[in-house]
Structures are given as structure tokens and as C-alpha cells.
Amino acid sequence: MSDPARHAIPGRVAFEESPLGGTVARLTHGDAECLVALHGAHVLNWTFRGEGLLWLSPVARIREGKGIRGGVPVCWPWFADTAGPDKPAHGFVRTRRWEVVRSFASTHAVSLALRIETTAADRALFPHHADACLTVTLGDGLEMSLITHNLGDSSFTLTQALHTYFRVSDIANVSVAGLAGIDYLDKLEGFARKPQSGCVRFEGEVDRIYVGDTSKIELRDAGSHRRILIGSSGSASAVVWNPWTEKTARLGDMGSPDAFRQMVCIETANAGDDVITLAPGASEVLTARYRVGGI
Ligand code: TA6
Fold it and tell me: 73 alpha carbon to ligand 1 midpoint, in Å?
């Protein structure tokens, strides 16, 4: 693994050892900053004018072979347990170190690209040859693009997600717009298909895969007077999740019994009915774009 420091750009891209236990890249652009762990190519936080916009568990740690609770886990090359209950949930690249392959800075933005390639040792998990490259761009918002290349000689199906944990003032103050009229698969009721009417609000556990035009979603937090505009491309599904009390207790790494009140996941995905088939030599791009707005 090459030394990431050669991709440092003074004042824009710096590499440092995180107190969470691994190497992170600090991207800086004007009033915005973003921390990206090389472990899992995991965006740990995104701040704008000193405000943290992503939620990270207070007990989150960077440990080989383990995921990080919060920020933006990269779920690849499958979402949830799509590959079967005997395989790691959300794929196997969020628990491994990725390699830094590129950095860039201009007056408009700063970006970092990280890459991971499947190995022969992965064949039992994933009998194909592919790589994934995540480009994180910090400009007048935060953009993440996950590019998959099929490097092998057989097609494979891909499901994936940028599993973003947004920080909110309190889940009672939160509504999610932009999904009205779109069907969702309700994981809490055997993935029953249901129509969404109006905004999504939270009065208990929510775990839904919205399938359709999910390219313009708006997270509204009346408590912080903030909106996050969530755009996407290469995606026809979005996951909305809040674990609420019981699942928070079962997860055990959220940091406190009521931690669910300060977060909501809105995930740009290819999940549910939205499955990608990638032919040999083909590539696919999943992009999420976030902008901060006021209410
Ligand atoms: O994206 C929602 C979800 O699939 C939930 O069902 C829950 O399992 C969440 O992901 C977290 O999964 P993780 O494997 O990170 O604990």
C-alpha cells in the first residue's frame, strides 16, 4: 500500500492519525471540512461553518475487519444481506483499508479518490474480479461518487449504498421530503410494498427502501432550521432508516440508548428492485450530492 502522504496538498489535503485509530485525510475548502478514513474509504464527518452535518457514534472506532458506526459506510458489492445471510452485511469493503489514488484542489473544490480491488482470496465471498473507486469532493457541498469496474470475464449483479448518517437536532423535528408518491419496501413488514404519502416522519423504527425517482430528496430539521438537499445519479432507490429504541439497544455501538434521536440515515443506493448487472469491462457510477440550505 503506497504512502498516502504523497497525495497531500498544503492547506487542502492533509493526512493524520485519528484518535479513532487509523489514518484519515482532512479535506479543507473555505468554511467546509471533511474527514475521510482510509479504512472503508469512510467519510467520518463533514462540517460547514463549524456545524457537524453527519452523525458519528461517540464510541466509533477504526478497527481492521470492523465497520464504523456513523458517517458514510460504503456498502459494496452488495447492500444489506442481498448476497445471503451467511455473508457480511453491506459487503466487505467497509471493513478494509482502501488506497489513496488521487487528490485535487482548485478554487472551486478539493477532492480525494480512494480505490479497492477484489482479490483471489475474496472469491468465496464474491466470485468475480472488480474494483471500486470512491471520489469525495468538497466544494459548495459534499459529493461522493462510487465507480465500479468489472475487471473480470463474467457479469455480476451489484447492489450498493452510500449509507449516510445525518446528524439532526432531534428526530421529532425531522421530515424527509421528495419521496411522496414513491413506493417503498418496508423491511419491518417483510419488505411489503407501500406508497409514500407526503413527507416521511418518525415516530418509531423506520427501515424502508424507496424505489423510483429518488434523485431529489430534502432532509428538513426544524430544530436546527436546516435543510440538506440530497441529489443523486446512477440510483433508482434510496433507503431511509432510523433504528429507534429497540434496535439501538441491539446494535450496542450507538453510544447511548437514545442516540437514535440525533440521527437519520438517508442512503443513496442501488437496492431493492434497483439491481445493476455489470458486464465484463463495464463500469457503473453511483453519486450522492449534498447541499446545505436554511429553513
Ligand atoms: O440501511 C439500513 C440497514 O440495512 C438497517 O436494516 C440496519 O441493519 C442498518 O442498515 C445498519 O446495518 P449495519 O450492518 O451497519 O449494522
Answer: 10
Q: What is the pLDDT of residues 35-47, one digit of tens each?
A: 999 999 999 999 9
CA distance 182 to 70: 26
The dihedral over CA atoms of 218, 61, 257, 79, expressed in degrees to the nearest 10, equals 50
Is this prediction's pTM over 0.90?
yes
Burial class from Cβ neighbours inside 10 Å (0-12, 13-18, 19+) for residue 152 reads middle
The ligand 1 site (C-beta within 6 Å) comprises: 67, 73, 80, 89-90, 163, 187, 207, 239, 241, 251, 265, 267
Question: What's the grid cell of residue 295?
Answer: 429553513
The 10 Å Cβ neighbour count of residue 254 is 23
Q: In terms of Cα–Cα distance, which of 231, 214, 239, 234 is closest to 293? A: 231
Dihedral, CA atoms, 276, 278, 282, 287, nearest 10 degrees?
20
